[in-house]
Amino acid sequence: MPVRSRDAKEFVRLWHRHHPPPAGQIFSLGAADEPNILRAVAVVGRPVARHLDDGTTLEVTRTASDGTRNANSLLYGAAWRAAKALGYRRLITYTQAGESGASLRGAGWRVLAHRPPRPGWHTPSRPPTDRGTSQIARTLWQAP
């Protein structure tokens, strides 16, 4: 089901383990149960890495769930179908070291690459903002 941007961001703020809501998005999706209670969201936007932002690729920048079984896998599959329906040819996402990727495998996604930890950066004119991604290895995934 479609979810408004502000509602998806609030859900991420409440339920995501280690990241704040993303700044922007192209669309967001939700999974709800029978009484229409939102149980999980996926936020899809332009790729964070500039070299992947080619106009045909989108990135799942956040998913968050209240723990409902299979909700994230359902959303990864739905996000890929929605992206294709909008004319995109590629959908990617990242997991951090220590995350199993079970939801992605359950949705048929495959590993493209393993990225080493980034050292972070610092310049006097622009001090770093800790977003929880420095010094953490990541895995790049792609939708089937």
TrEMBL record:
Region of interest: Disordered: 115-135
Lineage top rank: taxon: Bacteria
InterPro entries noted in UniProt: Gp66-like
Cited NCBIfam families: XF1762_fam
Name under which the protein is recorded: XF1762 family protein
Organism: Streptomyces bullii
